[in-house]
Amino acid sequence: MIRCIPVLLAVLAAAPLAGCVSNVPAKEVAIDDGTITADVRQALKRDPQLPESDIDVNTKQGIVRLSGFVASADSVGVAASVARTVKGVRSVRNDLRLK
Which domains does the chain have, with CATH numbers? Predict the structure, then answer.
């Protein structure tokens, strides 16, 4: 019986470590607001439906605010749609106006 005590103590000491592995997926790496803003600006510039737009982009905690002027009512929706496709954007606040 006395010989079993060290083995028992070793098993009890290691037991809390057995549960350290988790099957919970790792969280996505957060993308900083400056990167999101730059990526949205690039995406807007690349879009052929927004040739003459004057759009300002600001991001806070993944929420993108679009402000400025576009040439048509359709461009307002296009700009918001383009911004939503950028990785890290949580939502878009569209404050664009027609020229």
Answer: 33-98 (3.30.1340.30)
